[in-house]
UniProtKB/TrEMBL annotation:
Keyword tags: Membrane, Transmembrane, Transmembrane helix
Similarity comment: family membership: Belongs to the major facilitator superfamily. Sugar transporter (TC 2.A.1.1) family.
Keyword Transmembrane included in the entry's annotation: yes
Membrane topology annotation: Multi-pass membrane protein
Intracellular or extracellular location(s): Cell membrane
Coiled coil: none
Region (Disordered) residue spans: 437-470
Compositionally biased residues, Basic and acidic residues: 456-470
Entry protein name: MFS transporter
């Protein structure tokens, strides 16, 4: 099922506004996950936190993201993108405000878990809403912008944390937490008035509302008969049940999205942790200035994503992800030389990895939204996020243990092996989805869908429905 008024629409101010509004969630995610690291210095002193309590605070958000992604993607598919969009941001605002007034470690742990749940829920909410509104030929690039917002949010957290610490010292940690509450409120205001996804409305049989949403956002009137035919076509083809993710071709796609995401993010978390050590050679590895070094790391990864944003829509998803994983493994293998590797080579490897990691990074949220139908699209995105966080949590927890017992060289070689695992998964299972409608990309291989050639593009949606039912 596809709606040509959306698939073939030119980019307009609505698309840009929606992209910025959806990017607000990932921006907050990067900010909230990073500002806690800056504020923990002062928080530890004031609340007399033990090492175990600090670890719990750090892990609480990751556990929350796992839970939020796993369960609330399905809720989003049931209740709608726009409704969950607002609820999710309201929870982020509330938990951020309450974090300013904490007086004990258990309160911090609970609030960080709640924030993590909201963050994990936001990934499938924002990405599915944007994917279902943007035109085919711009979908990969605009979804990739969302992941850029995550890194920008992380960089902003370190810069703001640095400024507040310079002004107020460690005691400024409550102001740091308060800054996240203000930003959450701003993003919530940006999202007010965002229309519901027409694809979700059509999937639920609410065709009149879908027609109104398209007219309001794009200025196009789609005949109600076309929307009714599109709704019938999807209902006849897709059984929108969570268990469909774990059957047939959708099981393979679920494993692909989750595993490549995990193989990409696990070494990346390790390298982000290793990064401050590298930057220490420039005097940015100690004290408050280390926050500026961490901000620089995030910016380097942003720069790595920029070329990938264009390539995914120009040369395709499959070549970008396959070649990126292969090239990402090379600098990690070189870093396997450990402390004997010259500093200049270490820095070059870091920058090279960041550059090539842009491919899988911008596809983290593109593939789950393209490979699954409307009824389970957000669910699939949430499951992929949850699988990836298993690797992120494991990498974060095991990295210091691996460095102390095996050494930095062996640790980097393990990262290279994991990256090659992502390459193998992509080589075997990555599909090409560039320039195709969501109906075409989410259909099982060999299923009859509307051809996207210019000559056949004038086929009516009613004919599409009959074709898909045949």
């Amino acid at each position: 099922m596809s709606i040509r008024a959306i698939d073939e629409a030119p980019l307009n101010p609505f698309h840009r506004k929606l992209t910025w509004a959806c990017a607000g969630g990932p921006f907050l995610d990067g900010y909230l996950l990073s500002i806690i690291g800056v504020s923990l210095v002062g928080m530890t002193n004031e609340l007399s936190l033990s090492t175990g309590e600090v670890s719990l605070i750090g892990a609480a958000a990751l556990v929350g993201i796992f839970v939020g992604g796993l369960f609330f993607g399905a809720v989003t598919d049931r209740l709608g993108r726009e409704a969950m969009y607002t609820i999710d941001l309201a929870v982020l605002v509330g938990a951020s405000v309450l974090s300013v007034f904490v007086t004990d470690s258990w309160q911090v742990v609970i609030l960080r878990f709640v924030l993590g749940v909201a963050i994990g829920a936001d990934y499938p909410i924002a990405t599915s809403l944007l994917a279902e509104w943007v035109p085919n030929k711009h979908r990969g690039r605009l979804l990739g912008v969302l992941i850029l917002a995550w890194y920008i949010g992380a960089a902003a957290a370190y810069v703001i944390g640095f400024v507040l610490a310079e002004i107020g010292g460690p005691d400024a940690w409550r102001w740091m937490v308060a800054s996240s509450a203000v930003l959450c409120a701003v993003v919530l205001l940006m999202r007010l008035g965002t229309p519901e996804s027409p694809l979700w409305l059509v999937n639920k049989g609410r065709t009149a509302e879908a027609q109104d949403a398209i007219k309001s956002a794009l200025g196009r009137t789609v005949p109600i008969e076309e929307l009714l035919a599109a709704s019938a076509a999807e209902q006849s083809v897709v059984q929108s049940r969570v268990r469909d993710l774990f059957k047939g071709v959708y099981l393979r796609r679920t494993l692909f999205c989750g595993l490549f995401y995990m193989c990409q993010i696990t070494p990346m978390f390790a390298l982000l942790t290793f990064g401050p050590t590298i930057l220490g050679s420039f005097g940015l590895g100690e004290g408050n200035t280390s926050h500026l070094g961490s901000a620089l790391i995030s910016i380097v990864f942003v720069l790595g994503c920029l070329p990938a944003l264009r390539m995914v829509d120009r040369i395709g998803r499959r070549p970008v992800i396959v070649w990126s994983f292969a090239l990402m493994a090379v600098p990690l293998a070189v870093l396997g030389g450990g402390s004997s590797v010259p500093v200049a080579v270490v820095i070059l490897c870091f920058c090279t990895y960041a550059l090539f990691s842009g491919g899988p990074t911008v596809l983290e949220w593109t593939y789950p939204n393209e490979l699954f139908p409307t009824g389970i699209r957000a669910t699939a995105g949430g499951v992929a996020t949850s699988i990836s966080r298993v690797g992120a949590a494991a990498g974060t927890y095991l990295l210091p243990i691996s460095i102390s017992r095996l050494g930095i060289g062996a640790t980097m070689l393990i990262g290279a092996a994991i990256t090659l695992g992502g390459w193998l998964v992509s080589l075997l299972w990555a599909e090409e989805t560039r320039g195709r409608t969501l109906a075409e990309t989410s259909a099982p291989p060999g299923a009859a869908t509307r051809p996207s050639t210019p000559g056949e593009g004038r086929r009516t949606d009613l004919q599409d429905g009959e074709l898909e039912r045949s």
